[in-house]
Amino acid sequence: MKSLFDLPRAVWLLGLVSFCNDAASELVYPLVPLYLASVLLAGPRALGLIEGIAEATGSLLKLFAGVLADRTRSAKPWVVGGYGLAALARPLLAFASSWPSVLTLRFADRVGKGLRTSPRDALLALSIDERQRGLAFGLHRTMDNLGAVIGPLLAAGLLAAQVPLREVFLWATLGGAAAVALALAVREPARETAPVVVPFSWTLRGLPGPFRRYLVVLGLFTLGNSSNMFLLLRARELGFPEYQVPLLWALVALTAAVFSTPLSALSDRLGAPRLIVGGWLIYAGFYLLLGFNGHPALLWPLFGLYGLFMAATEGAEKALVADLAPREMLGTAYGWFNMIAGIMLLPASILFGWLWQQAGATVAFGFGAGCALAASLLLRGWVFAGEPQRSR
């Protein structure tokens, strides 16, 4: 606990920014599939197309924003701008009258995420000692997930009070404005040395071999990790009450919030790869059980298990990036990491939606579990092959 409260002010501020932003984002997020299905009458294929395009296109910006943050030696403008764009886009969903309009606004929201994510991760890594990376990223994920608890709870309360879906979206304005105000208060740490200018290359020039192999394995896992909205759609398909769907997602966020900091801090001692493999195995089990499960009552423990997967992997995956990449290229490294994790959502979501519609939910969820199992084996047996694994 002493180490936690000794973390720099910038780490806590960035955590509060994510808390407010996710309270607004997760107020909207679990309602989008319901809005598409019940109001706009769009099916799983449209949902996969919307989420795939929005996430993948926005993810391209994660790389370029990270590279430019390294080149300009300034991350804060990208962070503030990204949160600002998302804060403007989310409430406008209240005025969407067709699924292409939803696609446009989800795209704008993800562009904002693309602009801020890699510079924010680099800013966080530069603000802390390397022995506390897991702890700091775990705290950030905890604050992020606490916001993701508040959002769905507020959404459920508003729906229970008979507030129309369109009006619920407008409440996202409050959290978005608070996130931008807090981001403006973050002080960027001074960079001690002159930047080492490495020309940008699509071949990842200047980044070490284990980091490149890590990206390949991450891409394989993400191919089976389609939009989380499919999980909520599956719950609704199994007969879960509509007003309780946001509560189900709040359980995921609450579980992740409780366990993110201790599990990510554990990666500072045991090594991030072990935590990541454990989380991916939990993910595979969750997908198999959700694909074959036919009883709504089992969804509560299953979605709690999914929150445990998030807690074990979200902080550890980002801490491993900082372990493997040179300090002067952290923005670029996080750009590659976030871009791969995001751009693969396009084929993942489209493929998942197609498999579901053509062959059924069991086949779609089974495919996701298979990708997770294969990625776990490769991370343990291939990423660090022939090289001593770095420890913190």
From TrEMBL:
The chain crosses the membrane at residues 143-162, 168-186, 214-233, 245-263, 275-292, 336-356, 362-383. Keywords: Membrane, Transmembrane, Transmembrane helix. Residues 10-387 form the Major facilitator superfamily (MFS) profile domain. It comes from the Bacteria. PANTHER family: C-METHYLTRANSFERASE, MAJOR FACILITATOR SUPERFAMILY TRANSPORTER. This is MFS transporter. It comes from Candidatus Competibacter phosphatis. The lineage of its organism: Bacteria, Pseudomonadati, Pseudomonadota, Gammaproteobacteria, Candidatus Competibacteraceae.
